[in-house]
Amino acid sequence: MSGAPVLFVGAGPGDPELITLRGARALAEADVVVWAGSLVHPALLGHCREGIEIHDSAALDLPRIVEIMVEGYRAGRSVVRLHTGDPSLYGAIAEQIDELDAVGVPHAVVPGVSSFAASAAVLQAELTRPGLSQTVILTRRAGRTPVPAGQDLSSLASHAATMCIFLSVGGIGEVVDDLLVHYPQSTAAAVVANATWPEQRIVRGTLSDIAQKVTEAGIEKTAMIVVGDVLAEAGERSKLYDPGFSHGYRRASGASAHLDDTRGADD
Known about the structure:
By secondary structure, the chain is an alpha/beta fold. Helix content is 23%, strand content 18%. It contains seven helices and ten strands. The strands form two sheets. The protein has a five-stranded parallel β-sheet with strand order 3-2-4-1-5, with helices on both faces. It has a five-stranded mixed β-sheet with strand order 6-7-10-8-9, with helices on both faces.
């Protein structure tokens, strides 16, 4: 006997209402849940039925995590592996999927709201503003997990794009040093700790003072670093809602109207 595919579910950033409908339904139907207790807010378990089998992966190694999932699947039980944010980003799901593939256990992934998107929301920031940045770099500083050549922060900073830096706030001073190789000291920066959690904290500044402010705030983990002019400057207005710009869904008004019906509304 075997059950439905093991589901890797993105829990979202912490607010139990920011999990997807599909993810919440998966938890509601689960018989076995393996959750990242050191990262996922415990309120997410409120979507589960009472009395089901729940394992906190914080104290487990990879073989044991896989063993629990395989046993559940082979017993015909519905198994959910609950990861923080979106599991495609720093979720370590690839190695788990490899192990499931090796023993013939099917699986699927349910995406979630990433902490970088949640941080942008609580900052009320648009990460891609015309004239300032049309690129967002999602990255982390090298630590116990190294980064490939050319993907270090100082190299990535040369693009002057908006940058969302995961898993690095414990070394905020080193992060700033790396970024200052290319970004000016006046570049806006913010750190969001525990985005959407009740204990959420926001620190704003520039690269000249953000490290000191974060240190004084005592923020050492579970935080997103956001860097870029989009946090402070107005930039240009988009063409999408410009009354003088036409596209395939709307004709411009006024004497200065620019007609371009060949472009879609997303342009």
